[in-house]
Input
Amino acid sequence: MPTAPKPALRHPIGKVTANGTALHFTSFEVIQNAHHASDTFQVIIPLFDPKAPFDWVWWADQTDIEIEIMIGLADDNGNPGTMTSLIVGPVDAVAMAPLSYGYNQGGGRRGPSAEVGAGGLVAHAGGPSHPTGSVLTIRGRDYSGQLQDSQMSQQFTGNNLSASKVIPQIVAQVPQLSVDMAAASDQIEDDYNGGGGRLFLNRSPWDVITALADHEGYKVRVQGRTVKVQPDTSPDTSNAFEIFYIPASGAGDSYQEAQSNCVTLRMSRALNIGKGIDVFVNAYDTSSGRRPSRKQAKVRNSKSTKTGPTYTFNRPGMSAAQAQKHAKAKAGQIAQFEREIEFQIPGDPAIKVDRAITLTGTGTKFDQSYFPDQIDHRYSVETGYAMEVRARNKSRDATISEADATGAAPASTATAKTIPAIPPPKPAP
Output
């Protein structure tokens, strides 16, 4: 059984750069998301720091600012070791507060800190006197925002057209980005007069990329300047980060409080999904509109007594094999919402969205592996480095199976009605 961690003084080091130049800052927050969503950042900077590389005149005039935020843990001698890049991306918004705002902004007191960060700057330290709360706030996203804030209307032609051929062409339209994509074999073209092609009208490039990845059962996220399109597989538990819990024990003088390597821990379960789910995919022929195949995937566990929710997806142009694969992938994605854990922990850059997390020690069915869904990094030069993590997965005894649900669609019971013509207006008297 794991033992409780011994208190230790940590030395987290944060670094923020703007167009490659290091900034003086007081705090930052980076939120990393695992599935089809942008990572975001917010940085708080003293507005009137005399040693700042850029003054507020510069910030008020710029339109193209690239931010990179890094974090590391120094040793006892202050050596930073390896710095981990948390996010790279352009600034979306800049807000300045030369005068403090909000009720009693200057009345707070600095409380005790569990650790002291380095790399930033305590507001106004060593500088001239300025109103409390004079700060610059910058917010932004990773480079997926460059694929979200525009629309495309483009046709891709050719036989054997796959996501592997289309996605790199779309990503290439953003010069800052490259693509790292696993090979995708599913054909995505529709038939046009004996040829093949796919037309996308008035959709954002990000919407198209995620839709094509969803077709293949892949997940999409931007890491640095690379769009990563990879299979959405089960987490690799061989190098999982462990969250452990030791229940309270004993009584009286021998009482021992509950112990853990996290500060807070919350576990929840969606019982409707735990009952079992059914997913149907209707594949339609794009030329005739007929439904040649209807495929099913279902999720069940050892205690499933009745069926839970049913989900149906219509996917024009899919073959029967593609519809079956899509149904299974969708069932796996939905099933992950059954069990969820959330915990706060002293910041550790080793926890990443592509690294599995295991929970042990509760003695319940929650003791299993999880997919990280969102990681919130919070760093301050006054209070140090902390994280809040949300992770999800289906129950470990839940299984996903395929079924052929081919058959005619249920007949409509609606009765056609004749809509009477609108009478002409009466002439004015």
Residues 102-114, 122-131, 407-422 have pLDDT under 50 and may be disordered.
